[in-house]
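Page 42, continued from yesterday. The earlier attempt failed because a stray header line got pasted into the input along with the sequence. Redoing it now with the clean sequence only.
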Amino acid sequence: MEQATETAPWRVVGRGLTAGLAGTAAMTLLQTTVAARIPSGTPRRPPREPGEPQAKDENTTETTARRFVEGFAHRHLPAWLRPAAGYAVHFATGAALGALLALFVPRPKWWEGLAFGAAAWLVDDDFLVPLLKLGDWPNHYAFGTHAKSLSSHLAYGIGTALALDGVTALSEIATTE
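This time it went through. Structure tokens are written below.
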């Protein structure tokens, strides 16, 4: 049987979503084990946190989830639910970026995943987070904070690329049989 040269976009997006979830799992594992033990160092300037009083006890994804629920559902997100909602935002973002990678690079190599992870870190942490007032601009944070974040995003990129390559290979094998 001849192998199809074109793949439906929804299949590519599905592979990317799956790979993005796998990459996010690798990132989360690194963040909660290795990176959590590395000291951040002294900030160059004290970072300004988001202006809302409840944000002082939240991480970036929890603040995003709370703002989403309050803004779109017009409901209060209870404090006990914020960690789970934060993880939902974290994994949804990783899955969406994985789908984006799949659309542009259907069979990425690990070094392309490395570049992808670095780009995701740069755009997310150093541009979107301050732009959306979820945190401060990069010059306010210590070098160690940047190093921990970059390392976890590199793990995300490599994990996503390897998972996407594997999922695509399995899909190709299944369609040729």
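Notes: The helical segments are 9-32, 60-73, 82-104, 110-131, 143-176.
Reminder to self: strip header lines before submitting.
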